[in-house]
Amino acid sequence: MPGFFDRFTKRYERQQERKKRASPVVDPDAPPIPDAPVEQAHAEQGPGRNDACPCGSGKKYKKCCGKSP
To answer: Which end of the chain is more exposed for a tag (fewer CB within 10 A), N or C?
Structure first.
């Protein structure tokens, strides 16, 4: 019954090949990746409504460049 066992050995080899392909590609001897803190992006603060306008006009921001159209 060589045909009977050949089917099982081929199936076993295919399963082993799938397991190899599915395993992650990581070097087992590599050091662990440290958990680095993630820096959050912060929006730059613009001038406040009552601050002097950055254009140099001498007016408050709300009366100059901060004026809505």
So the answer is: C
| Tokens 């730059």 belong to residue | 44
What are the structure tokens assigned to 23, written together? 């395993």
Query: What is the 3 state secondary structure string of the chain?
Result: CHHHHHHHHHHHHHHHHHHHHHCCCCCCCCCCCCCCCCCCCCCCCCCCCCCECCCCCCCEHHHCCCCCC
- Please tell me the distance from the alpha carbon of residue 59 to that of residue 53, in angstroms, as a whole number: 6
Which pLDDT band, with edges at 50, 70 and 90, does 14 fall under? Answer: very high
CA nearest to 67, candidates 53, 11, 19: 53
What mean pLDDT do residues 38-49 have?
A: 80
